């Protein structure tokens, strides 16, 4: 699981807050990492896994405050920024390493992005919704299927 964001920019830290909370819970059987942004080198990283979940903040008003969806590889390069979207990292993983991990994106809706080391009230509320979903639907079902 890769948490993407920056805890020093309020709700941009939602990806990190999610991953850190999952780590503290101790029920997640996989590896966890934090990234400010995804880069080309992350294609090599994810090539080592059968499954990866990208967790990031979202700005735009998600109906439930979060969304969990399949991440599909896409050749989407932008030369005006250093960051790559998860879809592009997955594409590079396939192209460079001939690996195709099962990938998902968990996006958590936020509203504040200023320099502040604190989530907004909406960010905290949506973080809890996403955690509840993940613990009930993903971790619990994975444990039952073992």
Report the span from N to C terminus: 19 Å
Question: CATH topology, which one?
Answer: Rossmann fold
Structural class: alpha/beta
Order of helices and strands: EHEHEEHEH
Low-confidence stretches: none
Oligomer: single chain
What is the arithmetic mean of pLDDT?
91
Number of domains: 1
CATH architecture: 3-Layer(aba) Sandwich
CATH superfamily: HybD-like
Q: How much is the radius of gyration in Å? A: 15 Å
Strand order of the largest sheet: 2-1-3-5-4
How many helix segments? 4
Main sheet attributes: strand count, strand direction, barrel closure: 5 strands, mixed
Number of strands: 5
Helix content: 25-40%
CATH class: Alpha Beta
Characteristic terms for this protein:
146 residues; alpha/beta; Rossmann fold; five-stranded mixed beta sheet; 38% helix
Write the layout of secondary structure elements.
Layout: E1 2-4, H1 14-25, E2 33-35, H2 41-46, E3 51-58, E4 66-70, H3 86-97, E5 102-109, H4 121-145
Parallel strand pairs: 1-2, 1-3, 3-5
Antiparallel strand pairs: 4-5
Helix pairs in contact: 1-4
What features would you describe in this structure?
With 146 residues, the protein is of the alpha/beta class. It has helices at residues 14-25, 41-46, 86-97, 121-145, and strands at residues 2-4, 33-35, 51-58, 66-70, 102-109. Helix 1 (14-25) crosses helix 4. The protein has 4 helices and 5 strands. The protein starts with a strand and ends with a helix.
